[in-house]
Structure formats: structure tokens, C-alpha cells
Input
Amino acid sequence: MKILPLKFLFFLIILPFLGYSQELPSIVKYSSEVYGAGNQNWMLDQNKKNYLYIANNEGLLEFNGANWRLYPSPNETILRSVKVIDNVVYTGCYMEFGFWIKNKNGILEYTSLSKKIKGKLIDDEQFWNIINYDHWVVFQSLNRIYIYDTKTKQFKIITPKSGILKSFKAQDAIYFQTVDGSIFEIKNGNAHVLIQNEAIKNKKVLNIFSTAHGILIQTQYSGFYKFIEGNLEKWNTEADALLSSTSIYSSIVLSDGNFALGTISNGIFIINPQGKTLYHITQNQGLSNNTILSLFEDREKNLWIGLDNGIDCLNISSPIKTFFDKTGILGTVYSSIQYKDKIYVGTNQGLFYKTNNSNNQYQIVNGTKGQVWSLFEYDNTLFCGHDSGTLVINEGNSTVIYNQSGTWKFQNFPNNPNQLMQGNYSGISILEKTTSGWKFKSKIAGFDYSSKFFEVNLPNEIIVSHEYKAIFRLSLNSDFSKVLKVETYKSPVKGKNAGLAKFNNTIIYASKEGIFKFNNKNKKFEKDPILSKAIENDEYRSGKLIVDKSDKLWLFTKNNINYFTIGKLSNEPKLNTIPIPYSLNNSMPGYENISRIGENTYFIGTTDGYYSMNINDLNFNKFEINLNTVYKNESNSNIEYISNSGDETIDYVSNNLTFNFSVPEYNKYIVAEYQYLLDGYYDEWSEWSNKPYVSFKNLPFGDYTFKVKARVGNSLSENTITYNFTIERPWYATNLAILIYLVIIFVIAFFVNKAYKNYYQNQKNKLIEDNNRKLELKEMEVEQELLKIKNEQLELDVNSKNRELAVSTMSLIKKNELLTAIKEDLKKTDDSSKNIKTVITTINKNISEEDTWDLFKEAFNNADKDFLKKIKNAHSTLTPNDLRLCAYLRLNLSSKEIAPLLNISVRSVEIKRYRLRKKMDLPHEQGLVEYILSI
Output
């Protein structure tokens, strides 16, 4: 078995891919998961606000440029047709047709027309087409044509002898083809035969177009036929051979005169009026599906494609064309250039080329397989920076002139046109032109770091940017053979995807901190406020700087592709923005690349091919923003749509509002941004955002004005939406409630005032009472003081009397003792004379107990009133002598002191005390004197 050479096998592998080398219009894809309905889409149309309406397997689809909404089919059958007339959307499906009109809330509501003639419908009818003509609407099934008069609301039914294949509108007339191949024209509400010709008898007509002299009939397999003044003839085109083997299913004529033909399983053809194929786009070139069920051109000249599985939008009129590498053989594009009459594209798979402005296939340049970093034209020579080194390109061939390490980029040599500098993986080296061509000369010694970005500043000075280390300034000797000094910059700080370039004879450096200029005077980088606007006005994505052949400086940010130009009358750079978001340009971060291919045409490399654009044609049409729906809801409850025209009054419990708005622009590379203001809640406009909605939660009661506007790139919408609404007061803040509150407050104030009055009156009374009490207390204190003084005086008096009583008692005792002693002495004398006896008698009279007691009793009662009564009451059995003894004991007199007072012996006193204790019945442990003193 013969083994094929590897090169031949590689050619066979890439041949199918390389045959498709045409830049195509951008395609926006909408899968069924995105629009949330069935796979198949049978017909499309557009209203005056540029909303799209699609007849889908599951119902009517509405697309406003931001959001999809599905209105289920009225009878849950496949929707086959849709037609928008003014603001009315007519649809047809199985055994049903009618129209949809938006209510005040912006929601479509359906009204059935077929119910009016329900008994006249043929069983199993489906309505496949809808045509408008003046004030009539034509509904076509496979059996009949129903003509609805919108003025009289009446129907006229046309029933041909054989079934109807399809109906058409052209040259301000309505046509239809029957199963037998005849073509009829409807006149005055009746069908008249127009064509019965054997040439198309067995050919299915897919569409009829108007021409200057007649009509053009397009068939399913046999191409086009012209019908002029009753004559039918074939219109031969260069696409006939291809079309004859393809089943055409749908077609339309575009506004530029070209024809779009949708096929079964072979994508879409676009041919010009001369019959030349301009595009043949299939799933390999980016379509979602190869079976085209319906076609529609919108007002922005986008071609909408209803597919067997999904919906695609082809931006035919867009100045941006794409080359989509679905197979991955071309790979990620890192560089491109126009050299002579060829376009070269450097990718991670190698270097490819084709003839400029042709649909020729891309071919790989021999010997370039692998990573290509850069392409550089100098001295009529094309250099290729490759992972394997440096190559010189001559159309389909390459010559290696340096292979010691990979080559990043090339730079002109200062003051020497026969030399080039190149940045390599391990430093910088020099190429030299010899008589035999360009050769490697030498490496610059003393600097071995990767030199992906470098620029020559002065004749002997190079600035190198190393993404992961720092920025270096190299000072070289005169012949550029050696680095004499390396200065490392700490500022600006190195950042991810930073870049370095020379623009307007100044070295600039870009990172997430801004764009910096190198100052040759102080040898420092200084932030440039004008250039930094590109990053400050947007969000940083990459600092890769690209200067093209026309001296434009390009920079990629999150939402824009930016470029600076230098004016003819000013040296100040001017910022221009192209609103293509980073998410759509699909570039490799840090390796973005753009090259000037034509006068105003640029190639931008992506991870799956590239796209081209003519910057002079990037004009954005005037556009308006639409307010689609507004809905309110209570917290954690179902939404309720309200009028989208404004002047709404909303109950307080439903104070959560959501506004949905959009700009119906369908270009793949145009992204609308929105800015809103809620006057009465916010004082300033919001930041620009691509979200087509905004929600406000828990709005306070009051009057509000919601405003929203849009921008595409630097262009603002022609209108600003204004929506006025009022949040009602809550029940507790209504006028009635406030009145009730005022009444309650008045009543409360009245009672509070009254309570305060009572309180202060009570306080006053209490104060008076306190003062009176204090006065009374003061008086009592005075009285007590007086009483105390009186008591003290009485006590003094008592003490005085007690002293007097004691003195008296002691005097009596002393007297009696003296008299007793004298008496005893007289008794002891031997003289018994009468005189002595008389003296003794006199003495006895003076010591008489009764006299002494009476005197003592009187004094004792004065000193201690009621004692004798109290003790007599306590002990009624006490005799006078007992009371006398108690009185002496009250004075705390001893038995010896009492004896003379009683004129008895001490022993007798003790006996008396004992008897007195018995009478009082005192316990053994209690003393007699103690008891008497306690009374």
C-alpha cells in the first residue's frame, strides 16, 4: 500500500477549510434557549418601533432588541404566519387566524377573526401566509384565500379548483400558485389566471418579485423566470448550476436589489441582480442551521433568518465583515499585513496568505507552521517574527535568517537603513542587509531578558518593557554591540498586559494605571491626561498599543476600540472610539492586533479568525429608546403590569417598580448603554449600563418622574423617555388619617393639658400641704422644744424636790438618830428623876413615826406622783406600813437608812422587806428594789 507524503496529507486535511476564505457579514445568533420558544421559525415581520415578530412553533415571539417575549398560540398549535400592519400584528395557525394589539400596559392581547366565520373554515386548514393590500388583509391556507376588509369587517373567500401552494405580493398585485402549476392574480376580489405555461407547470414557485418591466418568478429548483407583457422566459444566472442542485425554500429581494435565497440543508445564497453569487453562507461559515424556513429584511437592512433550529441576524449592510474559522485550522490570529497584492495572516498555526480583495482560498506559507508573532514590511521585504526565529517571506515560501530563539517584533535601526533590530526571547539582536539578502549580524550583549516590546529612543538608547519584571532603559555603545548600562524603572509599576510603543515621536507606556509618556529631559515616565482618557472613560482590559501605517495609535478597552490621531493644525492627540466591546471582538488579551489593509480598512485578529471594518463607514443611524413595560409588585408577590405611558397612580403597598426599556438595534457589534434618573428620589443620572431594565424598591410616597436615555458609542438617542407616576400615601398617611391624627392629637393635647393642669394643681396643693406640714412640724418641734424645756424644768423641779425630799428624809433620819441616841444615853443614866422621863417622853414624841411619815409622804407625793396609787392598785393587800416601806425603797434607801425612819431595828426592816416580797408575789430571780423602781 502506497503511503501518502505528510505534506500531501496536510493539504488534504486543510483543503475543505481553505476553500472558504471570504469575509462575510457578521452573524448574530439566537438559539431557542435564548428566545425561550420552539426551534422552528416560519415567518418574520417588524413594526414601526422596529420590534421583531416571529411566527414560532410555540406561538408569537416578540423581540425588542433587549428581551424576548413569547405569546403562546391561541389554540396551542404551530404559528405559521405573521404580518404587522401599522400597530396590529396578524397571525395564522391551525384552524385559527386573528390579530394582536398592545394594551395600555404594553402587552399584546389577541382577538380572533376566524371565529366570525368558524362554520366556513375547511377542516384541517392551516394559514401559511398573510399579505396586506390597502385596507385588506389576505389570509392564505393550502385550500383557500380569505380576504378581510378592515373597514367593513367582512370576509370574501376565494376557493380555487385545486389547492394553493403559495401566495405572493408584487407590482402592487396579489398572486398565488395552485397545485396544477397555474399562477393566478386577484382582481376585484376574484382570481384570474395569469400564467398557464408548461415551462413552470411542474415547478413550485417560491416567490414573485417586481421588475421594471414585469415580474420575476423564482422557482424551487429551476432558478428564475421573467414574465414580461405576457411572455415567460428563463433568466439564466451563474448561480443556476448551484441552485439547481439545491432545494430553495424561502426567498426575498433586498433593498439593494440583491436576492436572498434560503435553502433546505445548504444555507443561504445572496445573488445580485445580474445573477452573480455574492455570498453562500452555511453552518460552516457561522449559521446556526443550514435549513432556512423564512427570511426578512428589517429597516436597518439586517437580514433575519428563521431557521429550522433558531434565529440568526445577518448584518449585511454593516461595514464590519468577519472571517469565521469554525474548523480551527487557521487558529488564533496574532498579526496581519497587506504586502504587495497579498493578504498575510499570522496565527498560532502558521502564516497564511491569499490574494487581496478575492474569495481565493487561504494557503499556508511553506516552512511557517507554528506560532507567528508579528509581520513587518521593510525595504520591500516581508519579515515574519516566528516562534522558531526570523523568516523572510516571498509569497508562498519562507527563508529562515535567524533561528537562535523566537522573535517577537522588528524595529528600524537608527541612522542605518541597511540594518534592523529585532526583539527576541533572550534579548535584542541585529539584522543586516547584504548583497545576498538580509542576514543575522549579531546579538546585543549585556541584556538577555525577553524583549517583546522595545523602542529606540535616542541613537544609543533603547527602552524595553518586560511584562513581568519592569521597564528597562538600555544605554549602548556606538556600534550597538554592547549594553553599557541598564536602568530599571520602579515607576510606572508593571501590570498585566501592559504595552509599549512610539507615537508622535514619543515613547508611551500603557497599563491599568494609565498611559505614560517618556520625558527625555528627566528620563522619567509621566502620566499623560489626554491619552489616559481612553482608559479612564472605560474599563482597562489590555495595554497593548499598536501604531499603524497611518500613524493612528490603537488601544483596546472593555467597551470600545480606541484610536488616537494627530490633527493637522494641532499636535494634541484626538481620541476616537469604535463601540465594539471586548467581549465581542474576541481578541487574545495582551495580543490584540489591528492592521491597516486598505485606505480605511482594518483587519482585527480574533481567537477564531478575524474581522475587517471600514472606519469611514462606521456611521450609526439615528435611533430611539423605547419603554417596553412597567410593572409593580408588593414585596415577594406576583408582578402586575401597569400603563407604560405614564401618569399612573400606584398604591403604596405596591411601591416596587421595574422599568423595561430597549434600543431595537440588531448589529452584532453595536451595544446600547442606558442611563436613567428618578426625579424625586435621585438627584443625578446613573452610570451608563448595558442592562435594559431598572428596579426601584420600597419607594416612599410622593410624585416621581422617571427618565431614561440611551447611547450607542458616542451617539445619544434622539429621545429621552419621561414617565410620571405617583406613589399614593399609605393608609396611615392619607388626608383622612391625618385629620384623625389631628383630632386625636387635639384630644390628647386637651387631656394632657388637663392632666398637666391637674398635676401642677396637685403639685401646688401638695406644696402647700408640705409647707403647712412643715409649719406644723416646725410648730410641733417648737412645742416639743417647749415641752422638752418644760419637762426639763419639771425634771429640775422633781430633782429639786427629790433633793429636798432626800434632804428632808436625811434630816429626819439624822434627827431621829440623834434623838434616839440621846434617849438611849438618858436611859443609861442612873438618874430616874422626873425631868429625865419628861425629856425621854418629849424625844419619843419628836421621833413619832406618824409625824415623820406624814412629812415624808407629803414630800414624796410631790416628787413622785401616783406611785403609791400605782403600787396599791397593783398590790391591794399592802398595808400603810408596806406602802411606807415601798416609798423608802423607791428612794433606793438601804435597810440601815430605813430603820431609823420606822423606829425599828435593821433586822426588823429585813423582815419587813421579806414579808413585802411575799405579798407582792415576786419571782425569786427578781429583786424587790428593782421591781419597785420599774413602776
